[in-house]
Amino acid sequence: MDYFAGIDVGSLSTDAVILDEEGKIAGYSIVETGANSTSAAEAAFSEALVRVGLEHTKVKRIVSTGYGRVSVPFAHKTLTEISCHALGAYAIFPDTRTVIDIGGQDSKVIKVGPEGKVLDFTMNDKCAAGTGRFLEVMASKLQIPLCKMGELSLNTVCEASISSVCTVFAESEVVSLVARNHPKEEIIRGLHRAVVNRVWSMVMALGVNYEVTMSGGVAKNKGVTAFLEEKLGKPLRIYSEPQIIGALGAALHARNLASLRHSIDHGIDIHSCTNGSKHGNFP
């Protein structure tokens, strides 16, 4: 059996997904990116291979994506995270029409069409506001684990007012609130509201089509997702491991690339073939 891999090199984590030739997820890994994107990509790929029990020679095509995609020397092709998140989300939830991706360094809203094609998108990559990095900075300032923020914010119905969308100024507001012994749960809830308001302005600028899928590490934050669902008026579609959606999309592109290569090599009329990903095979 042949296998295909996608590697998503983000600012905070690097994720690898390995698919079998039927389009099923054979295994995946998530590692910290750290200071060297190439090393992180190699580590993520190696860990995923170990989990599947594969030699790297069994992987026929590799596609890299994410802000550090050009730092993966063993990839056969690089693609933007926009197209990979769209295809990955569509593969998991075929009725996806909008993807909200809040990553470590940027946030994106993507309109998705048939077969997971990108119809339009908007992106915030100039400011940390509305990103995972914003929450990471605030968690450090509040001296709490980042993974606990969502849970803590649900322990209260009150929230502190965070007026600034700038990370630097918002950090100053948090310091001031802490100095006045303001409950941390309320500060966190206010921070989540600030993140969602920033992302929601992007959603409104692009226009929302239902159904909406959320990807990226921040999709694990129950406080952020609760506020987004409040805005949407209905539940978000969130995969059990939303952090690998970009890598999954890259792996699907790798599988499609291999299928196209096979068709060309064997003189098959590719215009009479479909190369969309299979659905319903994901664990």
Concise description?
The protein is of the alpha/beta class and 283 residues long.
Word description of this protein:
Helices cover 40% and strands 19% of the residues. It is α/β, with parallel strands linked by helices and 283 residues long. The chain has two domains: 114 residues, Nucleotidyltransferase, domain 5; 144 residues, ATPase, nucleotide binding domain (Nucleotidyltransferase, domain 5, 2-Layer Sandwich). The strands form two sheets. Strands 3-2-1-4-5 form a five-stranded mixed β-sheet. It has a four-stranded mixed β-sheet with strand order 8-7-6-9. A hairpin with a 5-residue loop joins strand 7 and strand 8. Helix 2 packs across helix 8. It is globular. The two termini are 19 Å apart. The C terminus is likely disordered.
